[in-house]
Structures are given as structure tokens and as C-alpha cells.
Design brief:
Two copies of one chain form a homodimer.
Chain A lengths: L2 H7 L9 E12 L2 E8 L9 E2 L2 E3 L6 H13 L5 E8 L10 E9 L11 E5 H4 L9 H18 L10 E3 H12 L5 H8 L3 E7 L9 E5 L2
Parallel strand pairs in A: 1-6
Antiparallel strand pairs in A: 1-2, 1-4, 2-3, 2-7, 5-6, 8-10, 9-10
Chain A binds a DNA duplex (30 and 30 nucleotides) through helix 6.
DNA sequence: TATAGCAAGTAGCAAATTAATACTAACTTA
DNA sequence: TAAGTTAGTATTAATTTGCTACTTGCTATA
């Protein structure tokens, strides 16, 4: 029997195992910037430092369920877009013990944000140049931003960052922020024309021409 | 309580933990098809069934290292393209116990394939309609193929499936198989022109015009 | 030693998409 | 009523992609 075969048949309880956690990168767009929810750590290690919200995975819940739980516990939110990001397995991620962290990211429109003293949004741009973020969470956030940047162009994830009813200038702004570049108005509209439908309503109270309100198809 | 005191009192073993494994999806292109390496399971569960090669993650190795180890143990290969795919955390993936599997995929040119009786390549197309694949490995393979299909168009992963020296018809065929569609010769060449450089060599022994041999830039 | 067969490789145009600019429309405020 | 401001549309240029037809260099065979 090879070593590998031996390992596969062992009684799992006799061996040391890593802990498995889920960390959540909750993105929103606010003040023309991509932002992420960070909590203040209340325990060692990294006490007092900003960190991603996370939970340990329980034996009776799937990873997706753990991610949902983290989302709900920390934000009260439900039914928003989320997806697995990457699994981080470095040896010294946590000084207490070996922890493998399965990261998820979620996208939420600005309006739904329930901030508290312990849980605040910070611009990604700012986070990435700070030195005080707990664990490897800065790296996770950077990776998440990259994933979003890629997916924006070939999926509809941008719609998850906008309310059900939105204007095209609003939606375009989201695309621009995620992609990190200006887009041409006319071209942008041609491209998403088949993914949306117009309502009979318009914005009001603006100093200029009102813009039509749209909804996503399906 | 100081940080030091806290670390001393923290006993990570009081909680039950899932086991963590790494499963490897080794892709190659052979006989004009995308194929995957499967091993025959020699133990319960799913004894005798085809499964992805995998190992349990050791406490002293990272996930990437475990994936490398699986790759090397099962194939003797080293230094080939590999990347984390997805982490599978369903409750009943394995009847023995809760196992969380971090899947990786790797790409290898056909020439380097070391097959044995226990380790053979199978066409993905065929695998996906079989019912006897162990665990949730069929799903993992399908997911891997999807990932590749996406990444082909915006990265250079296709080059990992071809030897260092290759012809353009050869490379084009790889793209076509990964994308699942025919490409136009002239356009294909324009598109990858800046990623390759020509050598002074040509194929020989063909019944027709020889094709020039190229290499990837960088 | 032609010439037919065959895949490699190139030229070039049509169609569609993307880049870019300029315009018109609808509102508020002075 | 005019100026300011952003929404929305029209239009053209540039680039990319879709597609067809051609030329090239080899082998096999007549």
C-alpha cells in the first residue's frame, strides 16, 4: 500500500486536520467607488484591526450555506448575488492554527447597506494601500476585485450592484467603475439594449433632463 | 488577556473538523478531443470506479503544494500549468466522512503523457455521459472544462497544451477543441501573431506542404 | 517529369462591432 | 428667455471578425 493509499483509508479522527472557514467579500459601489465591508476584529489575533467577515464551517452545513450564514449574520442580508472566489491555504495565515479559508464574494446595491460602528464599507483602493488589514484579507480583496473586473465583461453581474429599477447613466457608471475605464454612452446602450426593458417612469427632481427608468429582463 | 495568553488557552481540537483533500483534473488534448486522467479506485468507497487523482492535505503543506504533490505522485510530472479550480463542500460527497475537496486543474501537452494500467486518459465527452464515476468527480470535470472554455479566449492557456515547438495548424486545433468550434485560419493567425515567433524549422515527412514551426514569446 | 491531391499559408473583401464625435432633448435656475 | 447641465440619439471612422478564394510546397503516381 502506498502512502497515498494509506492516507485515504485512515480513521480521520486520529489525524490532525486544518480548520475550515469561510470569508466573505461583500462589494458595493458607493461614492463612485468600489467598496468592501470590513468588520473590526474583537479577538486575538489582529484585535481591533479591520477584517473580512467570516465564520467557521460547521459539520452540518455546506460551504455555500456557511457563506450565506456569514452574510446573514453580519449584514442581515439575504438573496443577493454571491459566488465562491478562491480558497486560501497558506501555512501561516492565522497564528492560532492552520486555517483554510474558502472565500466568497457578494454584490449588493448601495441602497441596501446596513452599516454599524463595527461594520463599515471602505474603498478597495484605500484598503489596498493600508498595512493594518488582518490576515491575508487584503490579498483576498484584491483577488476579488480582479475576478469582478473579468466577469463584468462576459456576464451580467453589474446588475447586482444596482437596484431593480435603474437608469442607464447609473448602470453605465457601475460598469465604468468595475472596469476602471470610461465607456461611450451610445455604444454602451446598444450593447445592453437586449438585457433591459424600459418602464414608463422617469427620474425627477434633477436639475437637468430626467432619465428613463429601466429594469433587467427575466 | 494578552495575545500570548490567548494563544495558549486556545484549543483548536475541541471542534470537529472536516477533512480537506485536493483533487486534480489533469487535462490534455488527444485524438482531437479534450481528455482527463482518471485513476481506478482501489479502496472503498467506489472501489474499482474511475476517479480523479487526489490526496489529503497535510498540515505542513499549502494547498498548491498538495496539488503539486498529487500531480507528481500520480504522473511524475513537474512544472506544468496548474491552477485552483473550485472548492467542493457538499455534505455527502464521501460516505466515510465530511471531506472538503479543493480541486485544481492542470494542462499538459499530449507528448508528455505517462499512462499506466491504473491511470488512463478518457475523453471528457465520454466521461460526462457515464454513470460510474466516483464521488462528484463528473461534476468537477464538467466545471473544469467550462473554466477552460472561458479562459481560452482571454488568456494563453491553450499554449500549455502544446509542446514548446509547435505548428500553427496544431495550435489552432487546440483552440478549436477547447472552444468547441471551428476557427478561420487567416483570422486565427492574425490574432496570435504577436504571441509567437517563427523558427527556421519546418515539419517534414508530411504528404503535403510542410508547416513552419513556432515558439511562444517570453 | 508532368500532374493530381492535399494541407499550409496568404490576400482581400464583406459584415459586424467598437471607437469617437457631434448633435438634439428636457429639465432647472437666473 | 437664455444658460447650464445631463439624457439620449445620429452618424461616421476605425477595427475586428466572418468568409471565400487563391497561391505554395510537398508527395504520390501516371
Amino acid at each position: 500500500m502506498t502512502e497515498e493509499e494509506y492516507l485515504k483509508t485512515y480513521d480521520s479522527s486520529e489525524f490532525q486536520k486544518p480548520s475550515v472557514a469561510v470569508d466573505l467579500v461583500l462589494f458595493t459601489v458607493r461614492k463612485e467607488e468600489l467598496q468592501v465591508l470590513l468588520t473590526e476584529r474583537e479577538q486575538y489575533p489582529y484585535i481591533g484591526r479591520p477584517a473580512l467577515p467570516g465564520v467557521f464551517v460547521r459539520m452540518e452545513e455546506t460551504l455555500d450555506e456557511a457563506a450565506q450564514r456569514a452574510l446573514y449574520q453580519k449584514t442581515g442580508l439575504h438573496d443577493i448575488y454571491f459566488e465562491q472566489l478562491y480558497t486560501w491555504g497558506g501555512l501561516d495565515r492565522d497564528p492560532r492554527m492552520r486555517i483554510i479559508s474558502v472565500s466568497y464574494y457578494a454584490l449588493v446595491p448601495e441602497s441596501q447597506i446596513p452599516e454599524t460602528e463595527q461594520k463599515k464599507f471602505f474603498p478597495v483602493r484605500e484598503i489596498l494601500q493600508r498595512e493594518d488589514i488582518a490576515f491575508d484579507h487584503r490579498e483576498i480583496i484584491a483577488y476579488g476585485r480582479e475576478r469582478i473586473r473579468n466577469k463584468v465583461s462576459y456576464t451580467d453581474i453589474a446588475f447586482s450592484l444596482v437596484p431593480e429599477e435603474f437608469t442607464l447613466p447609473q448602470l453605465q457608471k457601475i460598469y465604468e467603475i468595475l472596469l476602471g475605464q470610461k465607456l461611450y454612452k451610445a455604444n454602451f446602450r446598444k450593447k445592453i439594449a437586449d438585457k433591459i426593458y424600459q418602464t414608463e417612469h422617469f427620474t425627477s427632481g434633477t436639475k437637468h433632463r430626467p432619465s428613463r427608468i429601466y429594469r433587467k429582463k427575466d
